[in-house]
Write a structure and sequence with these properties.
The longest helix has about 35 residues. The strands form 3 sheets. This protein has an 8-stranded mixed beta sheet with strand order 4-3-5-8-7-11-10-9, with helices on both faces. The protein is of the alpha/beta class and about 450 residues long. The protein has 13 helices and 12 strands. About 5% of the residues have low confidence. It holds the Pfam family Gly_transf_sug.
């Protein structure tokens, strides 16, 4: 007796069921492997402020993660996933983010015009810059692709309670992974991207007489300046006694426009800080990847409690242990969590570590040779000269905030370039910013405040 005949329709059904079974089995087993892998490793969230034992520029990966085989330092994970090569030029890429697809009719006209300017300037370069706009719904899939090997970063991004926090975090993440220029949608370029000082050979050829600091080499002037790997501008330089009532920091660095090489260690420190702060501060930790909690050592727990930053730290009536939600996260939290406050803090911490742990750092600041047309030092960086030199010659040399105050010329510290306030904030008519047609004006910010939506 032969086997019963099976109809074509039945055969199709059997094949489909088998395919679905195989797909389910593969996904289920992959999830099990991922869960076992990530949980078997574990992650320690290290401090980014207490780094006296580390050289952040030349990180010793083998000696840094000393927590045993089953715990890995987040800093080491990031450095291993995105190694920094200072010899590689800054990628010719422009990144922007927006809520929706730019072709949508609901696009704000001023935003659309700004975007078109970036696309035009990108395409006009030779070779052209690659322009990429990432919409909100594209962020998570892209981060899963880029940061799959550092899943705690994705977990932190998903857990951020407000869109502005995610927008801030994403700009650092995309630059760390891919490099290039990031600029907010309410900005537009004023000059060709290739004219920025970060790519100007004439600027580098003019660099002379590097600033000396405690324990620096005697032959600094014989060393060759590094091509910038991280480029920022001054956002705020409030030269007034009541500055703390209006700004987060006396010198505040701009983060609506940033240029960077991929893997830059300064961004690594910033991403480590934001990841740890988020996982320690939010009420609702979310994750599309099955992960156990990351570990923060008890003696540094307050480093990553956003309620223990800036003025809130000293407010005795504030509930410092309350976890953050969309409802109780305010502007001060944003400033010190992902915004210009923590951005500026990490920059100073990184720069100070670099000159304390290395004796061959080139520091160029032509603003220390400037006297105004009336022969006065009062409204130039020279006003702070004594404090600047004193801090550089301390046993633990550091950059006094006045080093970046009242500047009109670019500053280069190792491969970190700082541009004057005019570069990314021309026309604001305060704090020494000059007009849009100034030779140091490169990006215009129209302050649409779209991040509030």
């Amino acid at each position: 007796m032969g086997l019963p005949k099976i109809s074509r329709r039945t055969r199709y059904i059997i094949v489909i069921v088998l395919i679905l079974y195989l797909l389910f089995s593969v996904q289920w087993n992959t999830a099990k492997v991922n869960h076992h892998f990530y949980n078997s490793i574990g992650t320690v969230l290290p401090s980014t402020a207490r780094v006296d034992h580390l050289n952040l520029k030349n990180l010793d990966l083998a000696g840094t993660s000393n927590n045993g085989d089953h715990l890995m330092d987040l800093r080491v994970q990031l450095a291993s996933q995105f190694p920094y090569d200072s010899r590689v030029p800054i990628p010719k890429k422009v990144w922007q983010t927006w809520k929706i697809d730019p072709s949508s009719k609901s696009q704000v006209s001023s935003i659309s015009k700004c975007q078109n300017d970036w696309k035009h300037f990108s395409a006009s370069e030779e070779p052209p810059y690659q322009y990429q706009l990432i919409t909100d719904d594209q962020m998570i899939p892209l981060l899963e692709q880029l940061y799959g090997g550092v899943p705690q970063v994705i977990k932190a991004f998903e857990s951020l309670p407000l869109p502005i926090l995610k927008a801030d975090f994403f700009r650092y993440l995309i630059l760390y992974a891919r490099g290039g220029i990031y600029s907010d949608m309410d900005t537009f370029p004023l000059k060709p991207l290739s004219s920025w000082p970060s790519t100007s050979q004439s600027y580098f050829s003019s660099l002379k007489n590097p600033q000396r600091y405690r324990n620096s080499l005697d032959n600094l002037e014989t060393l060759e300046a590094s091509e910038p790997g991280f480029v920022i501008g001054i956002e705020a330089d409030p030269d007034r006694s009541d500055w703390a009532e209006w700004y987060a920091r006396r010198i505040q660095f701009c983060q609506w426009t940033i240029q960077s090489k991929s893997g830059h260690p300064l961004l690594r420190e910033l991403i480590t800080n934001i990841t740890a702060t988020t996982l320690e501060s939010v009420a609702n930790v979310k994750s599309s990847i099955p992960l156990d909690d990351a570990e923060v050592l008890k003696d540094i727990a307050d480093d990553y409690n956003v309620n223990m930053r800036d003025k809130k730290k000293f407010n005795k009536n504030y509930k410092h242990q309350q976890k953050k939600t969309a409802k109780n996260t305010d502007g001060t939290d944003i400033m010190n969590w992902t915004g210009p406050g923590i951005f500026s803090d990490v920059i100073f911490q990184y720069l100070n570590n670099v000159i304390q742990k290395n004796d061959d750092i080139l520091i160029f600041n032509d603003n220390l040779n400037v006297i105004n047309k009336h022969g006065s030092k009062h409204d130039t960086t020279m006003r702070f000269y004594k404090d600047i030199v004193k801090n550089l010659q301390n046993d633990k040399p550091s950059l006094f905030w006045g080093f970046f105050s009242l500047m009109t010329e670019p500053i280069l510290v190792d491969d970190i370039m700082v541009l004057p306030i005019t570069s990314f904030s021309p026309g604001i008519r305060t704090m020494g910013a000059k007009e849009d047609n100034d030779e140091m004006a490169f990006v215009k910010h129209i302050f649409e405040g779209s991040w509030k939506d």
